[in-house]
């Protein structure tokens, strides 16, 4: 086993990991619910960036029911966005995990297991 080649491969994989993490950091996904009445934007790392509620989602005549409906729509939009973040993370990070044998490289500095 050529240790130099192994170290080179580890450095390349570490660089790919850094690039994938940066791509996730820069990405933004949008989840929706209620036919677009509620929109939630998340970063590629899953952090909520913005929530938009269309005024049509609010029924002024029944504030209590309207509040519960809006809460349910927000929750559904967040779940939709989270599912998209998961897919994006799998797309960006999945090939790296497979390249590492699916479990990372324990004991290799700078290359944590996934």
Entry keywords:
3-stranded antiparallel β-sheet, alpha+beta, 3 strands, single chain, 114 residues
Between the first and last Cα atoms, what is the distance in angstroms? 24 Å
The ordered string of helix (H) and strand (E) elements is HEEEH
Beta fraction: 15-25%
Largest sheet: 3 strands, antiparallel
Strand arrangement, major sheet: 1-2-3
Taking all Cα atoms into account, the compactness measure Rg is 20 Å
The tally of strands reads: 3
Uncertain segments are: 102-114
Give the class from helix and strand content and strand pairing. Answer: alpha+beta
Number of helical regions: 2
**Helix content estimate:** 40-55%
Q: What is the overall pLDDT average?
A: 83
What characteristic shape results from the CA principal axes? rod-shaped
Topology, please?
Layout: H1 3-26, E1 28-33, E2 38-43, E3 48-53, H2 63-99
Helix pairs in contact: 1-2
Please tell me about this protein's structure.
The protein has two helices and three strands, in the order αβββα. It has 114 residues and is of the alpha+beta class. The protein has a three-stranded antiparallel beta sheet with strand order 1-2-3. The chain starts with a helix and ends in a 15-residue tail after the last helix. The C terminus is likely disordered.
């Amino acid at each position: 086993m050529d240790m130099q080649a192994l170290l080179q491969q580890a450095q390349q994989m570490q660089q790919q990991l850094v690039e994938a993490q940066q791509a996730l950091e820069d990405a933004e996904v949008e989840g929706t619910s209620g036919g677009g009445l509620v929109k939630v934007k998340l970063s590629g790392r899953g952090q909520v960036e913005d929530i938009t509620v269309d005024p049509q989602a609010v029924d002024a005549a029944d504030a209590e029911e309207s509040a519960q409906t809006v809460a349910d729509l927000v929750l559904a939009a967040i779940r939709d966005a989270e599912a998209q973040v998961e897919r994006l993370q799998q797309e960006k990070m999945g090939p790296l995990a497979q390249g590492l044998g699916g479990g990372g490289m324990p004991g290799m500095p700078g290359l944590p297991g996934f």
